[in-house]
Amino acid sequence: MEEDKLITLLSRDDIRLLAQLATDCRVEVYLVGGGVRDLLLDRPSQDLDFALDGECAELPRRFAVAAGGTFFWLDEVRRHGRVVLGRGEGRMSYDFVLLQGGTIEQDLLLRDFTINALALLVVPAGDGIIDLQSGMADLQRGIIRTCSPRTFADDPVRLVRAFRFAATLGFTLADSTRDEIPHNAHLLEQVAAERVRDELFRILDVPASLPFIRQLAATGLLPRIVGTGYTGAIAPSFDRMGALEQLLAELERHFPADHGQLAGYLEYQVEDGITVHSLLKMSAFTGSVGSEKVAALAVKLRLGNRSRRVLQQLCRPQLPVGLLLPPELQTSRAMYRLFRDESPAGLALVLLALAGGVVTREAARRFVGYYCREYDAEGDDLYLTGAAIMTLLGTGPGPHVGAAAARLREAESRGMINSRGEAEEFLRKNQLTKPAPLG
Hints:
Layout: H1 2-10, H2 13-25, E1 28-32, H3 34-40, E2 47-53, H4 59-67, E3 70-75, E4 80-85, E5 92-98, H5 104-109, E6 118-123, E7 129-131, H6 135-141, E8 143-144, H7 151-154, H8 158-169, E9 172-173, H9 175-184, H10 193-204, H11 210-218, H12 222-226, H13 234-249, H14 251-254, H15 259-267, E10 269-271, E11 274-275, H16 276-286, H17 291-301, H18 305-315, H19 332-341, H20 346-355, H21 361-373, H22 386-393, H23 399-413, H24 420-430
Parallel strand pairs: 2-5, 8-9
Antiparallel strand pairs: 1-2, 1-6, 3-4, 4-5, 6-7, 10-11
Helix pairs in contact: 2-4, 8-10, 10-16, 13-16, 13-20, 16-18, 17-18, 20-21
Cofactor: Mg(2+)
Family: Belongs to the tRNA nucleotidyltransferase/poly(A) polymerase family.
Protein name: CCA tRNA nucleotidyltransferase
């Protein structure tokens, strides 16, 4: 079985092209790490790593030109380059770097976990997989094990990456590896926050991520990642995450007509590597903490503006009024206002409210059904246009027209206005006399 997988890999057009170019350059090429691991696990891999034995700086560039791809240096000093072929779901990435340590054996000893300390000689074709640390046995057993006592000290982000591999592969940490983590947790402070964030959000994107978030907390890593302000009331955080994950695992049962569109929405990347799904999980963990604490968390995790905004929408102390309207006021107009004002977090707010028992499943289905089949983000705006507002008020353009429109928008989002006539009556009462509080 293993031999068949190797033959299939070596017969691929891209690998054959690379082999031909490497032979011309007189360079030995090893496929290393995750590419070998995923090959053995029958997992599709769009990112292949190659270690080169022999100096040929032009090999990656020649491969890019011959394959019709793009080449760029990740680290020109260390001769670490990347070739990208295709786009979207068909995109393939090939990383090339010189052997670390001088030989493939020394290179593998420097790697993070035994399941990644595997190599296959591509050029010239070798006899099989090079496995110095029983990585193949750990693959079969589903174990994440460090390669050496210095694994975490050499790159502390591996502390979190161990759980990421466990989560994405469905593996467990070896007892010896888990025992090492609390003693090395302080090293995480040395790592760029962006690298830690990327590992965390890849864990959150796993459907059943709660067990691994629990393990991050138990080993002392979680407070260092998100700050101590979010880990004091840890049990409620776990309960919220658990309820949300259970709901997300049963989308088809809860939303039989719209679960496909919901799944697509959850996969939407708010920014590179951060999906609506992972931000929704994060909000369930943090709970309703308000914009200031979310802003502090966003700084700690180096979130971009779009992710920060979505997280603030999901973590505010009170849900949008439009989501809490009684059934008779859940009109198309009110739902339109909700989704327009809360974009892109509207559907996530519905799911969060349902998981928390704040809205009924019937109400959630009504909101989701409207969004999936009727909502048009570019649709009609207010019941009254700016010109209509000026006519009603008997004035020309000015700031007061914008203020009137803002009050109308808030009233419509609360379900207080559901027709043009009601909008006109609202303005007569609230703008033609004196401002009155909405409520």
